[in-house]
Amino acid sequence: MARRLEPYCWPLRPFDRAHPVRAYFNDPRISGSSRAFHFGIDISARDGAAVYAVEGGTVHLEGGRSLSVVSTGGGRSFGYWHVVPSVRHHQAVRRHQLVGHVEAPWAHLHFAESTRRQYRNPLRKGALAPWLDPSSPRIAGIAFSRGGKELSPLEVSGSVDVIVDAWDLPPLPVPPPWANMPVTPALLRWRVLRNGKAIRPWHAPVDFRRTLLPPSLFAVVFAPGTRQNRPNKPGRYRFYVAHAWATRRLPNGLYRLEVSAADVQGNRAHAALPFTIANRR
Predict the structure, then answer these.
(1) Topology adopted by domain 138-277
(2) Which terminus of the chain is less hemmed in, N or C, by CB atoms within 10 Å?
């Protein structure tokens, strides 16, 4: 039977208080032609801030400005990026021991957790603690699209993509130039109703709650128009919840598409779009 992994503290002081997080797990990362999912979280911190081990273990230096600590017993590994190390390669460290300082000019600590070489969401329940988010994500829009062109919901036909604009805000204020920047919801679901009855049940094509998605899925998850946050320039998150959805499988008529967006703590937002299927029969 697998050993249950315990929650762990914050890698910055105070250890028992949540810190502002300016980027979430699986947020989009876009650089030139590169597309990937964010493999950790970015914790806001002043340049030079002390960084501490969240669990005891063995240090592995991974370049000049990053390190990991493999926990005693090998259950999991914690990564610390944009850090000037103050420890040696293969040094044993204890919980809450200083491992380095935030490197200028990054003004944040990129923090990651992995188990059996699989990155996991540090903000999930039972991991980084304490973490409390009382607010819900936002759904900014729902659209049908084909060939990159948005379609009118008044006359939907053939195979269509379903795209949702959705975002969340961190629960703790983040300093400029990253203030009020959106982050991704952890879960998106959708369903279709007719006359109040679900004719396509809830389906969850976007799920960021637990593990990292591979870069090969970027264009499957994120629709064109998605932008990464930049200093003083908020990003935008457009999600495919369906590719080439075959409307011909349903009779012509009026329907209702419902979308739910949730964070890791289960706070939810809901939105709906009435639409009409009008295929030539």
Answers:
(1) Immunoglobulin-like (2.60.40)
(2) N
pTM: 0.94
How many angstroms separate the CA atoms of 217 and 253, rounded?
33
**From CA 279, how far away is CA 256, in angstroms rounded?**
17
Round to whole Å and give the CA distance between 121 and 38: 10
Tell me how far apart the alpha carbons of residues 230 and 207 are, in angstroms, rounded to a whole number. Answer: 24
The residues, ordered by sequence, that sit 6+ positions from 152 with a Cβ below 8 Å of its Cβ are 144
Task: Give CA–CA dist 6/102, Å, rounded.
Answer: 26
What is the end-to-end Cα distance of the chain in Å, rounded? 57
**SS3 string of the chain?**
CCCCCCCECCCCCCCCCCCCEEECCCCEEEECCEEEECCCEEEECCCCCEEECCCCEEEEECCCCEEEEEECCCCCEEEEECEEECCCCCCEECCCCEEEEECCCCCEEEEEEEECCEEECCCCCCCECCCCCCCCCEEEEEEEEECCEEECCCCECCEEEEEEEEEECCCCCCCCCCCCCCECCCEEEEEEEECCEEEEEEEEEEECCCECCCHHHHHHHECCCCECCECCECCECEEEEEEEEEHHHCCCEEEEEEEEEECCCCCEEEEEEEEEECCCC
Pick the CATH number of 21-120 from 3.40.50.720, 2.40.30.10, 2.70.70.10, 2.30.42.60: 2.70.70.10
Per run of 10 residues, the mean pLDDT along the chain (length 281 residues) is 76 98 98 97 98 97 92 89 97 98 97 95 96 97 97 98 98 97 98 97 97 97 98 98 97 98 97 97 75
pLDDT at 73: 76
